[in-house]
Every structure is written in C-alpha cells, then in structure tokens.
Design goal:
The protein is α+β, with helices and mostly antiparallel strands. It has 8 helices and 20 strands. Strands 11-20-16-12-15-14-13 form a 7-stranded mixed beta sheet, with helices on one face. A 6-stranded antiparallel beta barrel has the order 5-6-9-8-7-10. It starts with a helix and ends in a 5-residue tail after the last strand.
C-alpha cells in the first residue's frame, strides 16, 4: 500500500514543523539577531501595549536658600505604545494528480511535499526580511515616470535602480503616496523588466492611471496596512504614515517629540561616507538616551554601503577586523561593532541598532495550521490538498531614540 494522506500528515508533523522555525529565524540577518539577543516576546491579544518611561522627576536636585520653601513633589512620567498584531500567511497546494502519481512511492510523495514546503519557507523568509526593513507599507517599488504605453520606470524611492519585484508576474496594488490610502489600481498584474534609462522597467496589464505621480508605490495585492513594521519606520524621526494609525505605535512625533530616533544626514543631500559622520550617530545615542555606545550591537546596511566602508578604510589606511556572526553571516567591524550587509536593506544608509530596544511581539510563532489534526486539508471545489503557514506578531520598539541612522550615503 502506498502512502496516504494520514501517513503523510504524520511525517509532516515529525519532520517539517521544527525546520520552519530554524530556517526562518536563522536565515535572515535581522530576524536572526533579534532571536539571538532574546528580543522576541511571546504575548497574547490583538494589540501589544508597551509601557514607556518618558520623563523624570523634576523635583530632584533642586537648590533652595536656607529656610526656603521645599520644592513641590514631582513624579516620573509614563506613556504607552500600542503595537498592532499582524497576521501573515503562506500557502501551498498539492494537486490530486501529483498525489496519485507519487502514491506508490513514499520517497516521491515526500519529495513533492518537501519541495513545496521548502519553497514556501524560502519565500516567507524573504517576505518577512523585506518587511523588517520597511516602514509598514511594504512597498515593492516606486513610480518614477512612464516609458511608453503600459511600461513605467520604477526605483526604490531614493533614486536607486532597484525594486523588490521578482522575475515574472506579480499581483500588486498601486497606492497614491499623497495620502497612503487611495488605490489607483487594485489586483494589478505587473511584470518585471530590465534596467532602463530612468529606473527598472515594469509593465502593467492595465492602462496607467492619469493621476499617477512620482513617488506612488506598489504593494503586494490586498496587503496594505496589514504588513509588519520595519526599521525604516522605527529608526526615523518621522511618523510612518500608516493608514489608520496615529504615528508609530500610536504616538505621533508632533505631540511626542521624545518619540524619535537619532538621525544624521539626509537622503535629499547625499555625501560620501565618512568616519566622523558615523561617529556622530554613536555620540547622539550616547548623549541623548540612557544607552551608551556599548549598547549598540549591530550596524546594518546595504552591500553597497558596506563596500564603501571597506574602501574608506583602505583609503585612510585604517585597520578593520572581519568576523563571522552566528548563522554564518560575514561582517567587518567599526570600533568592535559588526557592520553587516543585507540585500534587502534600504540603500544609502546605515542603521545603528540597540537590539534591546527592539522586540518581536508574537502571539503565534511560525507554524503550519493543524488544529483540526491535519496539516494537509482538502481545497474546496478542487482536486487538491493544501497547507498554510502562519505567524502572528509585529516588530515593536520600546525605546525609539536608542537607535540611530546615518542617511544620504553615496553608494
């Protein structure tokens, strides 16, 4: 007798559940470091509320004349950040003919399942990593100009010829950047093309809307507002502008000026990387927060900026060490801090991270749905069985000003 679906589910539970966590938690740089530094926090609820210490007792160390009136009693000030829970999914589907073709060979059936599950893990890994570098919008590319017909030029929003689109066709929504809410196109299929004169060529299936403007962006279809928060939204002095949200974690910078990261430089005026500018970020964190330079555990950047740092050290005859971090990631060092490149990190910048201030709040770790006792479930009205990977949680920050970013670096 060949392997049936009951037997297959036993194999899936034994052999496939643990690798999901291992692959997703160790194969991405940021996620790996958050796990390593115990920066994940298992919680429950729809929204994760984080108490914040925002002010000190003013009635401390107050001088008075002899016999003078004692100062009025003060108190510590507190606030709270509310981190929304985000629900992420990945799905696979095995057709009836594939099951039938492999039913007399347990090995063949396992390979068919394994191929789909590993593919889903890999794709989910990259999607999570991309979101952890974003600002909650999860933009895949930004409109620059129209080339001709339904083909446009897109970039990364900062002038670099780069998008997060993958080869082939992707289903997206086109979002109006002026309000971060209006969908100029919905469920639109776009195809990634070559590099053009003004950006990456992207071809739309529908006609380009007449109201499209530079800076409008595409996101995975039906996801806008539901993706995880990332470093671009947290390590910033501005509000992320997420639809329906008042500032980062419900705290607008305008009324909470202390809720801002340390920012040096500007993307509007790019300059060459310099050691003094790097040191400015360290100094701002150490002088403006309760954290010191020693608390900065990671400098995260793009490959282009990492290469510029190596070139800078060579030109100035500065010595730097190389190191291998947990997970096999290679890094160069600056004052003993690892500078780690990530292919999905935003370009032209360096993040200086106090990992203790960043938390992955989770109500459910990566798992395959099996509450009914089976990972594989019949797909309604189709000759197929499917499985769904899920994760409930979001990246939050408990001390935003502890982190810093150096912007506007020429690559």
């Amino acid at each position: 007798m060949g392997m049936d679906l009951t037997q297959a589910d036993k194999v899936l539970k034994i052999f496939y559940l643990p690798p999901v966590r291992e692959m997703l938690n160790s194969a991405t740089i940021l996620l790996s470091r958050l796990e390593k530094d115990s920066s994940t926090q298992d919680v429950s609820g729809k929204t994760f509320t984080v108490p914040l210490h925002i002010g000190q007792n003013e009635a401390a160390g107050v001088g008075r004349a002899e016999g003078g009136t004692l100062p009025t009693a003060g108190a510590q000030s507190y606030g709270e950040a509310k981190v929304p829970n985000k629900y992420l999914y990945g799905s696979i589907e095995i057709s009836g003919p594939v099951i039938a073709a492999t039913r007399n060979s347990a090995g063949a059936f396992i390979k068919a399942i394994e191929s789909e599950m590993k593919g889903c893990m890999k794709n989910t890994k990259r999607a999570i990593n991309r979101q952890l570098h974003g600002d909650g919008h999860d933009a895949l590319g930004f409109y620059v100009s129209t080339k001709a017909g339904r083909t446009v030029y897109m970039d990364d929003g900062n002038g670099n010829f780069f998008t997060h689109l993958t080869p082939g066709t992707t289903t997206v929504d086109l979002i109006d950047a002026s309000d971060n809410s209006t969908e100029l196109l919905s469920d639109e299929k776009v195809t990634l093309g070559p590099e053009g004169t003004s950006g990456i060529e992207v071809t739309f299936t529908s006609a380009i809307p007449g109201t499209i403007a530079a800076g409008d962006y595409i996101v995975p279809a039906n996801t806008h507002g539901y993706q995880m928060m990332g470093l671009a939204g947290i390590v910033s002095a501005a509000d992320p502008g997420i639809l329906g949200a008042a500032g980062l974690h419900g705290l607008p910078v305008a009324t909470n000026p202390w809720w801002a990261a340390q920012v040096v430089g500007s993307d509007a005026s790019k300059v060459d990387l310099s050691i003094p500018n790097m040191q400015k970020v360290f100094s701002k964190i150490a002088s403006s927060t309760d954290y010191s330079e020693a608390d900065i555990k990671l400098i995260l950047t793009s490959y282009g900026v990492r290469d510029k740092y190596v070139e800078l050290c060579s030109n100035e005859r500065r010595f730097y060490n190389t190191m291998t971090l947990d997970g096999g990631f290679e890094a160069v060092d600056y004052n003993g801090k690892p500078i780690v490149p990530d292919a999905q990190c935003k370009k032209n910048r360096m993040y200086f991270l106090v990992l203790d201030s960043l938390k992955l709040f989770r109500s459910a770790d990566f798992s395959w749905m099996d509450r009914d006792g089976a990972i594989l479930a019949r797909v309604p009205n189709k000759d197929a069985y499917g499985a769904t990977l899920f994760h409930y949680g979001d990246l939050g920050c408990v001390c935003r000003n502890a982190n810093g970013v150096l912007l506007g670096i020429n690559e």
